[in-house]
Amino acid sequence: MMLKTNDIFFEFISKTWIKYKYIDDALSPLLQKGLVEVGNLLLLSEFNDSRVIPAESLFDDIDKEVFINNFHSDDYLNSFQIEEHWINMILFCKNLKNYLPENRSYFVYMILSQTEYGVNFKMYKDRGIEYLSENIDKYQQGIIQFKF
């Protein structure tokens, strides 16, 4: 199991930023196009034809589970290394922060999990760390907490 903290990961990012800078450029346009709601999930509208939800309203529903696909990261990275998926997650959060309402704080748990369909990201708003600890076997690749 890999459990990383903000400090450890941002240090890792700072050492590899130049190598992965282009991912940041790729994610910004995807976020600007908004997200779509599919059942209780939110997906990037780039990959779905459903109704668009502005990124600003992403966390309006406290119980909303947000699922972000892997951004076709094979197109951006040409590999599926776990460390690179973590970088995608960090850069997604860095971009997402620009689209959230100001003067509001969010505690967000980012989860990277391996499924039969590939590597997926999930994002929970204000989800108690106790819940995640109790279900850690579901999240073998790790958890990272952000405060927006």
Structure description:
This protein has about 150 residues and is α+β, with helices and mostly antiparallel strands. It is about 35% helix and about 25% strand. It is built from 4 helices and 7 strands. A hairpin with a 2-residue loop joins strand 5 (about 105-115) and strand 6. Helix 1 packs across helix 3 (about 80-95).
Question: Which features does this protein show?
Answer:
148 residues, alpha+beta, four-stranded antiparallel sheet, three-stranded antiparallel sheet, 4 helices, 36% helix, 24% strand, globular, disordered N terminus
**Percent in helix:** 25-40%
Basic shape: globular
Q: Major sheet: order of its strands?
A: 4-6-5-7
Output the helix-strand order. Answer: HEEEEHHEEHE
The biggest beta sheet reads: 4 strands, antiparallel
Task: Quickly describe the structure.
By secondary structure, this protein is of the alpha+beta class. It has helices at 6-32, 73-77, 82-96, 129-134, and strands at 35-38, 41-44, 52-53, 65-68, 107-115, 118-125, 143-147.
